[in-house]
Amino acid sequence: MLKGRLGLETARIPHADRHGLLWLSRGELCVVDGCLHFLRGRNSLTPLMDQIPHQAVSTILLGPGSSVTHDALRLLARHGTLLAAVGEDGVRSYTALPLLPDRSDVARRQAELWSNPRRRISVARQMYALRLGEVLPHRDLDTLRGIEGSRVKNFYRLMAEKHGISWKGRNYDRAHPDATDLPNQAINHAATAVQAAAAIAVQSLAALPPLGFIHENSGQSFVLDIADLFRDTVTLQIAFTAARRAQQVGDTIDKLVRREATAVFRKQQLIGAMIDRIKQVLRMDEASHGAGDDRDA
Q: What residues does Mn(2+) bind to (predicted)?
């Protein structure tokens, strides 16, 4: 959308003044009398209808069992509210429409840091420091990756011992993900869930998924960067807890991981924590926002 086109940009409530995420599931997002509503139990004798304050939220996360009408999409686009289709409690991120926030400060800051080699490695070192608990003196990215990889191997072993799981090392064949042992399968499923949460956080801030500071080749490199910041405290905790439960119950490891991920996401308010972490690693408090420039143009 062009700056100030038809006055639509200035008519919107700035995202900085909105609430964050609104979770909806098992209903229809529709428009009634010009206002956004969420209708639950349409086929019931007593359906429930809630009016949604779409102008006051940044992102609506639409969960399983939901649908959305054309009028609802039009209304969301008109007010610049992001809509994303997600799994239960954000354990999957399926798609997000390109109805991005009205401010580009996060994306511009990310591009600024990423495009400067010195500042890019500085952000990467900060990310490793957040994970490893110390600032490493090395500035070569391959060296940092090697140090991190060595420590992660040790952490895998310690987590397996803590949860009473037999551990034979990390083994993952992308072509045959179910061919590995149970703990490795659990890690794969948990990583997918945490990456979904990271994708939601990145989408909510209108950050740039391809511009990663540690990961480089994926179109979701920055999403993978953010997910990795929570590997030790969230991903592996979910994985090994589920692997231990798999020894006691008959459910599939995928179902157990999703169930555990849902509980952990809720308890730790993971997506909100990821949003805060993105702002931290991009040093948004140091950036010159200039948020009013676009709206005043």
A: 148, 215, 228
